[in-house]
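Tutorial handout. Part one gives the primary structure; part two gives the three-dimensional structure as C-alpha coordinates.
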Amino acid sequence: MVLANGMVFEGSSFGSEGCVIGETVFTTGMNGYIETLTDPSYYGQIVTQTFPLIGNYGDIPKDHESARCNLKGYIVREWCDEPSNFRCGGDVDSYLRSQNIIGLYDIDTRRLTKVLREAGVMNGMIISGSSKEAVEAFAALNDEKKKTELLEKIKAYKIVNAVESVTGSASGVEEPADVVFSESVQYRFVPVTAGGTKINDPELAMKDGKGKKVVLWDFGAKANIRRELLKRGLEVVTVPSSYNAEQIKALNPDGIMLSNGPGDPAENTGIIEEIKKLLKTGIPVFGICLGHQLLALASGAETMKLKYGHRGANQPVKYLKTGRVYISSQNHGYAVKNETLPKGAELSFVNTNDGTCEGLVYTNVPAFSVQFHPEACSGPLDTSFLFDEFVKLINNPSYFKDFKPEYERVDAIKYFASTIKQTKENA
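Part two.
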Protein backbone atom coordinates (compact mmCIF):
# COMPACT_ATOMS: atom_id res chain seq x y z
CA MET A 1 0.00 0.00 0.00
CA VAL A 2 1.52 3.31 -1.13
CA LEU A 3 -0.03 6.51 0.23
CA ALA A 4 0.14 9.83 -1.60
CA ASN A 5 2.45 11.16 1.13
CA GLY A 6 5.05 8.50 0.25
CA MET A 7 4.43 6.09 3.12
CA VAL A 8 4.56 2.41 2.21
CA PHE A 9 2.81 -0.43 4.06
CA GLU A 10 3.85 -3.99 3.19
CA GLY A 11 1.52 -6.93 3.68
CA SER A 12 0.07 -10.00 1.99
CA SER A 13 -2.37 -10.32 -0.88
CA PHE A 14 -5.86 -11.78 -1.01
CA GLY A 15 -8.69 -11.29 -3.42
CA SER A 16 -7.66 -10.24 -6.91
CA GLU A 17 -4.21 -8.98 -7.98
CA GLY A 18 -2.88 -5.98 -9.89
CA CYS A 19 -2.61 -2.25 -9.22
CA VAL A 20 -5.41 0.06 -8.18
CA ILE A 21 -5.60 3.71 -7.06
CA GLY A 22 -8.37 5.07 -4.85
CA GLU A 23 -9.21 7.45 -2.05
CA THR A 24 -8.05 5.69 1.14
CA VAL A 25 -10.56 5.74 4.00
CA PHE A 26 -11.24 3.73 7.16
CA THR A 27 -14.39 2.38 8.77
CA THR A 28 -14.74 1.50 12.46
CA GLY A 29 -17.61 -0.98 12.25
CA MET A 30 -17.00 -4.12 14.34
CA ASN A 31 -19.34 -6.13 12.12
CA GLY A 32 -21.18 -5.51 8.86
CA TYR A 33 -18.21 -6.04 6.54
CA ILE A 34 -20.57 -7.60 3.97
CA GLU A 35 -22.61 -4.40 3.89
CA THR A 36 -19.41 -2.36 3.62
CA LEU A 37 -18.18 -4.38 0.64
CA THR A 38 -21.50 -3.96 -1.17
CA ASP A 39 -22.35 -0.36 -0.22
CA PRO A 40 -22.34 1.79 -3.42
CA SER A 41 -21.32 4.83 -1.35
CA TYR A 42 -17.76 3.44 -1.21
CA TYR A 43 -17.37 3.85 -4.97
CA GLY A 44 -13.82 4.92 -5.88
CA GLN A 45 -12.40 4.28 -2.40
CA ILE A 46 -9.89 1.89 -0.84
CA VAL A 47 -11.50 0.83 2.42
CA THR A 48 -9.56 -0.05 5.58
CA GLN A 49 -11.35 -2.00 8.33
CA THR A 50 -10.16 -1.01 11.80
CA PHE A 51 -11.63 -4.14 13.39
CA PRO A 52 -8.74 -6.67 13.37
CA LEU A 53 -10.52 -9.83 12.14
CA ILE A 54 -12.72 -9.76 9.04
CA GLY A 55 -14.56 -12.64 7.39
CA ASN A 56 -15.46 -14.85 10.36
CA TYR A 57 -19.07 -15.30 9.21
CA GLY A 58 -18.11 -15.44 5.54
CA ASP A 59 -20.08 -14.02 2.64
CA ILE A 60 -23.88 -14.02 2.92
CA PRO A 61 -25.38 -13.04 -0.48
CA LYS A 62 -28.81 -12.33 1.04
CA ASP A 63 -27.23 -9.50 3.06
CA HIS A 64 -25.68 -7.71 0.07
CA GLU A 65 -26.65 -4.05 -0.24
CA SER A 66 -26.09 -4.10 -4.01
CA ALA A 67 -25.44 -6.62 -6.76
CA ARG A 68 -21.76 -5.73 -7.04
CA CYS A 69 -18.78 -4.45 -5.08
CA ASN A 70 -18.13 -0.79 -5.87
CA LEU A 71 -15.05 -0.04 -3.78
CA LYS A 72 -11.56 0.05 -5.33
CA GLY A 73 -9.58 -1.97 -2.82
CA TYR A 74 -9.93 -3.62 0.59
CA ILE A 75 -7.49 -3.61 3.53
CA VAL A 76 -7.75 -5.67 6.73
CA ARG A 77 -5.46 -6.74 9.55
CA GLU A 78 -6.44 -10.40 9.28
CA TRP A 79 -9.03 -12.27 7.22
CA CYS A 80 -10.68 -15.53 8.23
CA ASP A 81 -10.29 -18.32 5.68
CA GLU A 82 -12.58 -20.73 7.56
CA PRO A 83 -15.81 -18.79 8.26
CA SER A 84 -18.59 -20.30 10.37
CA ASN A 85 -22.23 -19.26 10.03
CA PHE A 86 -25.39 -21.20 9.16
CA ARG A 87 -26.11 -18.66 6.38
CA CYS A 88 -22.56 -18.56 5.03
CA GLY A 89 -22.33 -18.80 1.24
CA GLY A 90 -18.57 -18.48 0.79
CA ASP A 91 -15.53 -16.63 2.10
CA VAL A 92 -14.38 -13.03 1.68
CA ASP A 93 -11.37 -13.97 -0.45
CA SER A 94 -13.56 -15.74 -3.01
CA TYR A 95 -16.02 -12.84 -3.08
CA LEU A 96 -13.24 -10.30 -3.72
CA ARG A 97 -11.88 -12.48 -6.52
CA SER A 98 -15.33 -12.76 -8.11
CA GLN A 99 -15.62 -8.95 -8.08
CA ASN A 100 -12.01 -8.38 -9.23
CA ILE A 101 -11.24 -6.41 -6.06
CA ILE A 102 -7.66 -6.30 -4.79
CA GLY A 103 -7.27 -7.06 -1.09
CA LEU A 104 -4.38 -6.50 1.31
CA TYR A 105 -3.96 -8.02 4.76
CA ASP A 106 -1.34 -8.48 7.48
CA ILE A 107 -0.48 -4.79 7.65
CA ASP A 108 -0.63 -2.45 10.65
CA THR A 109 -4.15 -1.10 10.10
CA ARG A 110 -3.97 0.79 13.41
CA ARG A 111 -0.98 2.79 12.16
CA LEU A 112 -2.61 3.40 8.76
CA THR A 113 -5.78 4.65 10.47
CA LYS A 114 -3.79 7.02 12.68
CA VAL A 115 -2.10 8.47 9.58
CA LEU A 116 -5.48 9.07 7.94
CA ARG A 117 -6.88 10.63 11.11
CA GLU A 118 -3.95 13.01 11.49
CA ALA A 119 -3.37 13.91 7.83
CA GLY A 120 -6.90 13.35 6.54
CA VAL A 121 -8.08 10.97 3.84
CA MET A 122 -5.67 10.76 0.93
CA ASN A 123 -5.23 8.80 -2.25
CA GLY A 124 -3.35 5.54 -2.21
CA MET A 125 -2.34 2.62 -4.41
CA ILE A 126 -2.42 -1.10 -3.72
CA ILE A 127 0.24 -3.05 -5.64
CA SER A 128 -0.23 -6.82 -5.69
CA GLY A 129 0.87 -9.80 -7.75
CA SER A 130 3.28 -10.34 -10.63
CA SER A 131 1.62 -8.59 -13.55
CA LYS A 132 3.76 -6.23 -15.66
CA GLU A 133 2.06 -3.20 -14.12
CA ALA A 134 2.65 -4.49 -10.58
CA VAL A 135 6.30 -5.38 -11.23
CA GLU A 136 6.95 -1.89 -12.63
CA ALA A 137 5.21 -0.26 -9.68
CA PHE A 138 7.21 -2.34 -7.17
CA ALA A 139 10.43 -1.36 -8.97
CA ALA A 140 9.46 2.32 -8.94
CA LEU A 141 9.47 2.31 -5.14
CA ASN A 142 13.25 1.76 -5.19
CA ASP A 143 13.95 4.51 -7.74
CA GLU A 144 13.62 8.06 -6.41
CA LYS A 145 12.65 9.61 -9.75
CA LYS A 146 10.16 6.87 -10.65
CA LYS A 147 8.70 6.91 -7.14
CA THR A 148 8.08 10.66 -7.47
CA GLU A 149 6.29 10.03 -10.77
CA LEU A 150 4.25 7.24 -9.16
CA LEU A 151 3.23 9.49 -6.27
CA GLU A 152 2.15 12.21 -8.71
CA LYS A 153 -0.02 9.65 -10.47
CA ILE A 154 -1.56 8.64 -7.15
CA LYS A 155 -2.20 12.25 -6.13
CA ALA A 156 -3.85 13.01 -9.47
CA TYR A 157 -6.59 10.41 -8.98
CA LYS A 158 -10.07 11.84 -8.57
CA ILE A 159 -13.46 10.19 -8.14
CA VAL A 160 -15.62 11.28 -11.09
CA ASN A 161 -19.11 10.39 -12.35
CA ALA A 162 -19.72 8.63 -9.05
CA VAL A 163 -23.52 8.71 -8.94
CA GLU A 164 -23.89 7.82 -12.62
CA SER A 165 -21.57 4.84 -12.09
CA VAL A 166 -23.54 3.24 -9.24
CA THR A 167 -27.19 4.14 -9.83
CA GLY A 168 -29.28 0.98 -10.09
CA SER A 169 -26.59 -1.26 -8.60
CA ALA A 170 -29.01 -2.62 -5.96
CA SER A 171 -31.57 -3.81 -8.51
CA GLY A 172 -30.01 -7.27 -8.65
CA VAL A 173 -30.84 -7.96 -4.98
CA GLU A 174 -34.36 -6.50 -4.78
CA GLU A 175 -37.14 -8.70 -3.36
CA PRO A 176 -40.96 -8.38 -3.13
CA ALA A 177 -42.59 -7.07 0.03
CA ASP A 178 -43.84 -10.42 1.37
CA VAL A 179 -40.37 -11.96 1.07
CA VAL A 180 -38.75 -8.90 2.67
CA PHE A 181 -40.95 -9.04 5.74
CA SER A 182 -40.85 -12.82 6.22
CA GLU A 183 -37.05 -12.83 6.00
CA SER A 184 -36.82 -9.81 8.32
CA VAL A 185 -38.61 -11.76 11.03
CA GLN A 186 -36.13 -14.62 10.65
CA TYR A 187 -32.80 -12.98 9.86
CA ARG A 188 -33.10 -9.23 9.44
CA PHE A 189 -34.58 -6.28 11.26
CA VAL A 190 -38.29 -5.81 11.86
CA PRO A 191 -39.54 -2.20 12.24
CA VAL A 192 -38.65 -0.53 15.54
CA THR A 193 -40.59 2.33 17.12
CA ALA A 194 -39.06 5.53 18.52
CA GLY A 195 -39.35 3.96 21.97
CA GLY A 196 -37.35 0.91 20.89
CA THR A 197 -40.24 -1.57 20.63
CA LYS A 198 -40.00 -4.10 17.79
CA ILE A 199 -43.08 -4.63 15.60
CA ASN A 200 -43.29 -8.25 14.52
CA ASP A 201 -46.86 -8.06 13.19
CA PRO A 202 -46.81 -7.24 9.43
CA GLU A 203 -50.32 -5.79 9.46
CA LEU A 204 -49.49 -3.42 12.31
CA ALA A 205 -46.20 -2.35 10.73
CA MET A 206 -47.80 -1.70 7.33
CA LYS A 207 -51.19 -0.22 8.21
CA ASP A 208 -50.26 3.48 7.93
CA GLY A 209 -48.34 3.09 4.68
CA LYS A 210 -50.82 0.90 2.80
CA GLY A 211 -51.95 2.39 -0.50
CA LYS A 212 -49.15 4.95 -0.63
CA LYS A 213 -46.52 5.07 -3.37
CA VAL A 214 -42.93 6.21 -2.86
CA VAL A 215 -40.41 6.95 -5.60
CA LEU A 216 -36.93 5.88 -4.54
CA TRP A 217 -34.56 8.15 -6.47
CA ASP A 218 -31.50 5.95 -6.74
CA PHE A 219 -28.13 7.73 -6.46
CA GLY A 220 -26.48 4.48 -5.34
CA ALA A 221 -29.17 3.24 -3.00
CA LYS A 222 -28.50 0.53 -0.44
CA ALA A 223 -31.02 -2.29 -0.81
CA ASN A 224 -32.12 -1.97 2.78
CA ILE A 225 -33.64 1.47 2.17
CA ARG A 226 -36.16 -0.16 -0.14
CA ARG A 227 -36.71 -2.98 2.35
CA GLU A 228 -37.49 -0.54 5.17
CA LEU A 229 -40.01 1.29 2.99
CA LEU A 230 -41.69 -1.98 1.99
CA LYS A 231 -41.95 -3.03 5.64
CA ARG A 232 -44.10 0.05 6.23
CA GLY A 233 -46.58 -1.08 3.57
CA LEU A 234 -45.44 1.44 0.98
CA GLU A 235 -45.31 0.68 -2.72
CA VAL A 236 -41.77 1.46 -3.91
CA VAL A 237 -40.88 2.51 -7.45
CA THR A 238 -37.11 2.81 -7.97
CA VAL A 239 -35.89 5.25 -10.63
CA PRO A 240 -32.30 5.97 -11.78
CA SER A 241 -30.38 9.17 -11.09
CA SER A 242 -30.97 10.28 -14.69
CA TYR A 243 -34.69 10.87 -14.03
CA ASN A 244 -35.88 14.47 -13.88
CA ALA A 245 -38.61 16.17 -11.86
CA GLU A 246 -41.24 15.83 -14.59
CA GLN A 247 -40.66 12.10 -14.95
CA ILE A 248 -40.91 11.60 -11.19
CA LYS A 249 -44.08 13.72 -10.93
CA ALA A 250 -45.63 11.69 -13.77
CA LEU A 251 -45.48 8.62 -11.50
CA ASN A 252 -47.89 10.37 -9.08
CA PRO A 253 -45.94 9.50 -5.93
CA ASP A 254 -47.16 10.20 -2.41
CA GLY A 255 -43.55 10.60 -1.28
CA ILE A 256 -40.02 10.81 -2.64
CA MET A 257 -36.97 9.13 -1.10
CA LEU A 258 -33.56 10.61 -1.95
CA SER A 259 -31.06 7.80 -1.49
CA ASN A 260 -27.48 7.57 -0.32
CA GLY A 261 -24.65 7.58 -2.85
CA PRO A 262 -20.95 8.35 -3.42
CA GLY A 263 -18.85 11.35 -4.34
CA ASP A 264 -18.93 15.11 -3.82
CA PRO A 265 -22.59 16.20 -3.50
CA ALA A 266 -21.91 19.64 -5.00
CA GLU A 267 -20.88 18.07 -8.31
CA ASN A 268 -24.44 16.84 -8.95
CA THR A 269 -25.68 20.19 -10.22
CA GLY A 270 -28.31 18.71 -12.54
CA ILE A 271 -29.90 16.60 -9.80
CA ILE A 272 -29.88 19.57 -7.41
CA GLU A 273 -31.84 21.65 -9.94
CA GLU A 274 -34.41 18.87 -10.33
CA ILE A 275 -34.80 18.61 -6.54
CA LYS A 276 -35.56 22.36 -6.44
CA LYS A 277 -38.43 21.75 -8.86
CA LEU A 278 -39.76 18.84 -6.81
CA LEU A 279 -39.77 20.90 -3.61
CA LYS A 280 -42.27 23.26 -5.27
CA THR A 281 -44.74 20.41 -5.82
CA GLY A 282 -45.46 19.83 -2.14
CA ILE A 283 -44.68 16.10 -2.38
CA PRO A 284 -43.13 14.90 0.94
CA VAL A 285 -39.39 14.20 0.69
CA PHE A 286 -37.03 12.14 2.87
CA GLY A 287 -33.28 12.21 2.21
CA ILE A 288 -30.57 9.88 3.52
CA CYS A 289 -26.79 10.52 3.38
CA LEU A 290 -26.08 11.93 -0.11
CA GLY A 291 -29.81 12.56 -0.44
CA HIS A 292 -29.60 14.67 2.72
CA GLN A 293 -26.75 16.72 1.27
CA LEU A 294 -28.43 17.19 -2.12
CA LEU A 295 -31.66 18.32 -0.44
CA ALA A 296 -29.70 20.87 1.62
CA LEU A 297 -27.87 22.16 -1.46
CA ALA A 298 -31.17 22.51 -3.32
CA SER A 299 -32.50 24.54 -0.40
CA GLY A 300 -29.55 26.97 -0.41
CA ALA A 301 -27.12 25.47 2.10
CA GLU A 302 -23.47 24.58 1.43
CA THR A 303 -21.44 21.40 1.96
CA MET A 304 -17.83 20.77 2.97
CA LYS A 305 -15.40 17.86 2.86
CA LEU A 306 -14.56 16.39 6.26
CA LYS A 307 -10.98 15.65 7.25
CA TYR A 308 -11.48 11.90 7.45
CA GLY A 309 -15.25 11.51 7.40
CA HIS A 310 -17.59 9.40 9.51
CA ARG A 311 -17.61 5.70 8.66
CA GLY A 312 -18.72 3.00 11.05
CA ALA A 313 -21.64 1.71 13.11
CA ASN A 314 -20.91 3.58 16.34
CA GLN A 315 -21.46 7.28 15.62
CA PRO A 316 -23.44 9.14 18.34
CA VAL A 317 -26.03 11.66 17.13
CA LYS A 318 -28.18 13.92 19.30
CA TYR A 319 -31.82 14.57 18.41
CA LEU A 320 -32.26 18.25 19.25
CA LYS A 321 -36.03 17.92 19.55
CA THR A 322 -35.77 15.65 22.59
CA GLY A 323 -32.13 15.79 23.69
CA ARG A 324 -31.84 12.02 23.29
CA VAL A 325 -28.61 10.54 21.86
CA TYR A 326 -28.80 7.65 19.38
CA ILE A 327 -26.03 5.40 18.07
CA SER A 328 -26.00 5.47 14.28
CA SER A 329 -24.33 3.84 11.29
CA GLN A 330 -22.58 6.27 8.96
CA ASN A 331 -20.59 6.38 5.75
CA HIS A 332 -19.82 9.84 4.40
CA GLY A 333 -16.92 12.16 3.71
CA TYR A 334 -18.92 15.38 3.27
CA ALA A 335 -21.25 17.32 5.56
CA VAL A 336 -23.69 20.21 5.39
CA LYS A 337 -22.26 23.42 6.85
CA ASN A 338 -24.28 24.36 9.95
CA GLU A 339 -23.75 28.08 9.48
CA THR A 340 -25.20 28.09 5.94
CA LEU A 341 -28.64 26.67 6.72
CA PRO A 342 -31.35 28.72 5.01
CA LYS A 343 -34.54 30.02 6.60
CA GLY A 344 -36.98 27.19 7.10
CA ALA A 345 -34.26 24.56 7.66
CA GLU A 346 -33.98 23.46 11.28
CA LEU A 347 -31.05 21.46 12.62
CA SER A 348 -32.58 18.24 13.97
CA PHE A 349 -29.57 15.99 14.64
CA VAL A 350 -25.94 16.81 15.41
CA ASN A 351 -22.89 14.58 15.75
CA THR A 352 -21.89 14.70 19.41
CA ASN A 353 -18.23 14.05 18.55
CA ASP A 354 -17.67 17.07 16.30
CA GLY A 355 -20.94 19.04 16.17
CA THR A 356 -21.50 18.54 12.44
CA CYS A 357 -24.98 18.49 10.93
CA GLU A 358 -26.57 15.03 11.06
CA GLY A 359 -30.16 15.94 10.22
CA LEU A 360 -32.46 18.69 8.99
CA VAL A 361 -36.18 19.35 9.14
CA TYR A 362 -37.75 21.82 6.72
CA THR A 363 -40.67 23.79 8.10
CA ASN A 364 -41.49 25.60 4.84
CA VAL A 365 -41.77 22.43 2.71
CA PRO A 366 -42.72 18.84 3.64
CA ALA A 367 -39.20 17.47 3.80
CA PHE A 368 -36.60 16.16 6.22
CA SER A 369 -33.28 14.37 5.97
CA VAL A 370 -30.53 12.67 7.95
CA GLN A 371 -26.83 12.25 7.28
CA PHE A 372 -26.62 8.84 8.96
CA HIS A 373 -28.25 5.53 7.92
CA PRO A 374 -31.49 4.70 9.77
CA GLU A 375 -31.83 1.60 7.55
CA ALA A 376 -28.43 0.30 8.73
CA CYS A 377 -28.05 -3.41 8.14
CA SER A 378 -25.86 -4.57 9.81
CA GLY A 379 -26.00 -1.72 12.29
CA PRO A 380 -27.86 -0.21 15.27
CA LEU A 381 -31.67 -0.19 15.13
CA ASP A 382 -31.97 3.04 17.13
CA THR A 383 -33.11 5.36 14.35
CA SER A 384 -35.19 3.13 12.06
CA PHE A 385 -38.27 4.93 13.45
CA LEU A 386 -37.44 7.73 11.00
CA PHE A 387 -39.09 5.65 8.27
CA ASP A 388 -42.27 5.82 10.34
CA GLU A 389 -41.79 9.58 10.52
CA PHE A 390 -41.69 9.57 6.71
CA VAL A 391 -45.02 7.70 6.61
CA LYS A 392 -46.48 10.28 9.00
CA LEU A 393 -45.21 13.09 6.76
CA ILE A 394 -46.79 11.42 3.71
CA ASN A 395 -50.13 11.20 5.51
CA ASN A 396 -49.80 14.72 6.92
CA PRO A 397 -47.55 17.07 4.84
CA SER A 398 -47.67 19.69 7.62
CA TYR A 399 -46.26 17.19 10.15
CA PHE A 400 -42.98 19.12 10.62
CA LYS A 401 -44.41 22.60 10.18
CA ASP A 402 -44.12 23.42 13.89
CA PHE A 403 -40.87 21.53 14.52
CA LYS A 404 -38.87 23.17 17.32
CA PRO A 405 -35.44 21.85 18.35
CA GLU A 406 -34.33 21.70 21.96
CA TYR A 407 -31.83 24.46 21.25
CA GLU A 408 -32.19 27.38 18.88
CA ARG A 409 -30.05 26.67 15.82
CA VAL A 410 -27.38 29.28 16.60
CA ASP A 411 -27.16 28.20 20.23
CA ALA A 412 -26.71 24.57 19.19
CA ILE A 413 -23.89 25.44 16.82
CA LYS A 414 -22.18 27.59 19.46
CA TYR A 415 -22.64 24.91 22.12
CA PHE A 416 -21.03 22.13 20.14
CA ALA A 417 -18.31 24.39 18.74
CA SER A 418 -17.30 25.41 22.27
CA THR A 419 -17.39 21.77 23.40
CA ILE A 420 -15.03 20.74 20.60
CA LYS A 421 -12.70 23.67 21.34
CA GLN A 422 -12.57 22.78 25.04
CA THR A 423 -11.90 19.11 24.23
CA LYS A 424 -8.97 20.07 21.99
CA GLU A 425 -7.55 22.40 24.64
CA ASN A 426 -7.80 19.69 27.29
CA ALA A 427 -6.03 17.24 24.97
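Part three, for discussion. The radius of gyration is 22 Å. The first helix runs from residue 33 to 38.
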